[in-house]
Fold:
Amino acid sequence: MPNTHAAAPPVTVPAPPAPASSVGHAVGVTDDEFRAAMSRLAAGVVLVTACEPSLDPDDPQAPVGEDVGMTATAFMSVSLDPPLVMVSLRDGSRMDDLLDEQPQWAVSVLSESQRHIAGRFAMKGRISDRLLFEDIPYVRGQVTGAPLVGGALATLECRTEQRVPAGDHTLVIGRVLTARVPSADGGPLMYFKGRYRHLG
Structure:
């Protein structure tokens, strides 16, 4: 007697998802491949700073909020006329949120002797910004009021001109309001292959 039962369809077991770091994007590159390639691009290290706005803008006696700082390597000059610079901020980071409401900020170009400052402000799960600034010499910018690190190779004060969404980051383009070269000593602090380094 012929078998009248249809054959059961083959069961397909989905493959487990690959770890996030090895997932290929639309063009085929993985996160790890992209990180490894970009780590070979040597970059200068800066400290981006800003001061939280006053809790009551209408009251000149109202206290201002905390100073905020962030180590950045994705920083570059954009234009000479007008003088523009750009920094890339991770979406949802404290600095990204602050610069979304505070248009004035500053940059200190760190020297090779300031590796400890770069590491301190790059920590995950770090302590409050007030404590991070506690034993670091700095002055306040005349225009922005943001901290400018003592001993930095150069300092700039900026005002945001444009915010450009770019993947999981925001590109903040700022007009340079002041530019100073307070120190000519030492070389720049560099970031290469995942580590802070110096020239030479």
Summary: The chain is about 15% helix and 35% strand. The longest helix spans residues 31-38. The first strand starts at residue 43 and ends at 44.
